[in-house]
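User: Second chain of the day. Same drill as before.
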Amino acid sequence: MKSKLYSILLHSALFHSVRILMGVVFLYASYDKILHPAAFAKAVFNYQILPDTAVNIMALVLPWLELLLGLSLVAGVWLPGATVVITSLMAIFIGALIFNQIRGLDIHCGCFSTESTQGPADIWTIMRDCSFLAASAYLTLRIFLFPRSSNI
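Assistant: Same format as last time:
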């Protein structure tokens, strides 16, 4: 009995730690993009994936969506929807990075900063994002596969 309670507490602490960590990551990711929408629009354009008419809309909407999702994770509200959207976004981000790696485009990620001081996105950027994808997938699976009471 004691072992089961310990296991539940450990899993709960892990869930909440990952939830808050991912929330902070998304809050941090949104900050610079919200402050510099034109620079972020340039980063989105450089991916050469979206039609030109969608670039500005994406550059304006995505940072605010990241802010909302980050707040949701930190506050612990709307978790089922937030985790599904974050997991989907991470998969899309990784796909876009890999797609441009295959195409041979040296793009600045635009993930956390609109400044291109870190150089082009590389395999380490993809690996970092894969770790975020794993964390968001863990949150999503935990919410949908386990009873709500075990997430407390």
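The mean pLDDT is 90.

User: Great, on to the next one.
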